[in-house]
What does this fold into?
Amino acid sequence: MKIENGKVALIHYSLKNDAGDTIDSTVNDAPMGYLHGHSNLMPGLEKALDGRGQGEKFSMSLSPEEAFGPHDELKIKKVPKEHFNGLDDLKEGMHLQVNSPQGAQIATVQAVGEAEVTVDFNHPLAGQTLHFEIEVLEVREATAEELEHGHIHGAGGCGH
It folds into this structure.
């Protein structure tokens, strides 16, 4: 069976940056599962998996534009420190989940001043080329419930 719209795929992957540092990997953990064609992965990654079958192994790279976009200086904001009430231990490099008009976002603290906090709303991997090593472990039909919900359930999925 091949990966195509409406099919469930379980994969192992290793993700590295240009320096060859491993950023994320499922290889020594549970595989990642997803419902193909339902925007559960970056479009470039999903496109590379399209038509692949169980047992296939391959390498691929995604440019910043295909992954999390280029780093945008306009997404670096100075926020009044009082907006962080209750977070007395703010530190440079900290990742925070912030509610915004666009929904929940991950932000990285760049600097903590007396009155302001400089926060980067770019995705932590924005501006980076991503290098993947992928192995397709399983391809199966999606259940009606998975198709209705737009994501998989059970092993590798959300579990509900």
Residues 27 and 41 are 18 Å apart (CA to CA). Strands lie at 7-16, 22-25, 32-35, 57-62, 76-80, 95-100, 103-112, 116-120, 130-141. The helical segments are 43-49, 144-149. DSSP finds two helices and nine strands in the chain.
